[in-house]
Amino acid sequence: MIRFERVTKRYPGGHEALSDVSLEIRHGELLVLAGHSGAGKSTLIKLIAGLEKPSAGKVWVSGQEVGALRANQLPYLRRSLGLVMQEHRLLHDRTIFDNVMLPLIVTGYPPRDAAKRVRVALEKVGMAEFEKAMPLTLSGGEQQRAAIARAIVNKPSVLIADEPTAHLDPAYAREIAALFRSFHSAGVTILLATHDETLFSPYGARRVELSRGRLLA
Amino acid sequence: MSPSFHPHGIALRQALSRLGAKPLATFLSALVVAIALSLPVLGLVLVDNVGSLARGVSGKPEISAFLKRGTDPVQIRAIESRLRADPRIAALRFVPRDEALRQLAERGGFADVAGALTENPLPDAYIIEPKGDEPEVFEKLRTELAALPEVDVVQLDSAWVTRLHAAVSLARQAMLLLAFLLGAALVIVTFNTIRLQILTQRHEISVSLLLGATRSFVRRPYLYFGLLQGLLGGLVAWALVEGLVRLIAPGVETLARSYNIVVEIQGPTPLQAVLLLLFSAVLGWVGAGLSVRRHLHDGPVD
């Protein structure tokens, strides 16, 4: 599903965020990407979404080489991924409902079904009652759940989350972890970057660890 | 509420809501555009009014060919048949010297003068009306007539019309040049407005791109915004010009009447109005397009 082939990412200025990483994430897998902060977890995720290009090596997503995609092909790659980035990145000027609607608007989804889909996604993350709320009136955990709803509203086959439990207190963090677990049971491939891997250990996830840009065996 | 998800529908609605979100800013931008545009448009409208006046006059330029004294009737008839055969001449009228004197006597103030004359000093004359309205043709006709042995003096009364035409076309060019310069100002105004918008909407842009929005999806609302802002400016400019024309028309008409000219100052014609709106909308779109190219280039995605 996702394959890294001897990937190195060097940022301008010489910092090497990833060094010679080879990794394969299979269809239907739940993979926890562990590592201290600055180990290269976010860089790895950005390479999958085509937000960065590898300095060496190749990244494959669903049989497409991401680095070889033209700028006008990247949007279609991103639509096939559900991304939950580190800062949840909800738009503060609109309701939770409109935030979750955004991916459907962007992809030109038929309007009649869109609202239904938004409600289903909000339901799944337990946020149905907050659809009219503005993001800033909600707690960190609620905002994170809304961001997850936005990532799954397009029914992606892969869900990728960068530190989804960061800044959350343990109770909220466990709820979020259970949420990913339920998506995984429904057959979604999941990649989680987290420094808090113990949250996911009960779910039998495969675990890989990055340290200073290198994958530990 | 069932909003259309057609990409252009979305873009247009977004642009409209951005215009509506800041009514004062929208109004002021439209006013800047309108003032910049109304100046050359008003100029062009006035020039066109004068131009149509000049066209009305130039419809009948006259060439007066005064014959030498003592030209005998046979020669006169010979000239007449030659002139009648000339395809460049639309109409021809012979004014015998006696009739010329009578006309002079009828004109106020000259009766005494005519009565005091012991002999008619006036020559026979042909009043010629040439075809078309090309000054070169008139000029050629004039020199040819002057070369005839029986003709003493030729007067072309359209010289001032030629000058008026030249002045009108010069003023027109000046106004078009001004329109070009102020059009550039319109492009710059839109460019800057869009730049500020992109800066404030950075977050929304990067989230949209992250969620798989195409670049044209992100760009489109800004292009529509520029187009609508230009169009709005054009509309206000149109209203301004109509108003200004109405304000100054009585003054111009009074002035013209004192010269015994009847003028009716007209506002922009429907075609001119449509062109104005088209021009301002296209310039707004161009300004937005340039700004989007400059400020939305590669990577709001971070």
UniProtKB/TrEMBL annotation, chain A:
UniProtKB keywords: ATP-binding, Cell membrane, Membrane, Nucleotide-binding
Keyword ATP-binding (UniProt): yes
Cell membrane in keyword set: yes
Pfam families tied to this protein: ABC_tran
PROSITE patterns noted in UniProt: ABC_TRANSPORTER_1 (PS00211), ABC_TRANSPORTER_2 (PS50893)
Span of domain ABC transporter: 2-216
Protein name: ATP-binding cassette domain-containing protein
Organism: Uliginosibacterium paludis
TrEMBL record, chain B:
UniProt KW keywords: Cell cycle, Cell division, Cell inner membrane, Cell membrane, Membrane, Transmembrane, Transmembrane helix
Main location: membrane
Coiled coil: none
This protein's name: Cell division protein FtsX
InterPro entries in alphabetical order: ABC3_permease_C, FtsX, FtsX_ECD, FtsX_proteobact-type
Role played: Part of the ABC transporter FtsEX involved in cellular division.
Oligomer status and interactors: Forms a membrane-associated complex with FtsE.
Start and end residues of each ABC3 transporter permease C-terminal domain: 177-294
Domain spans labelled FtsX extracellular: 62-154
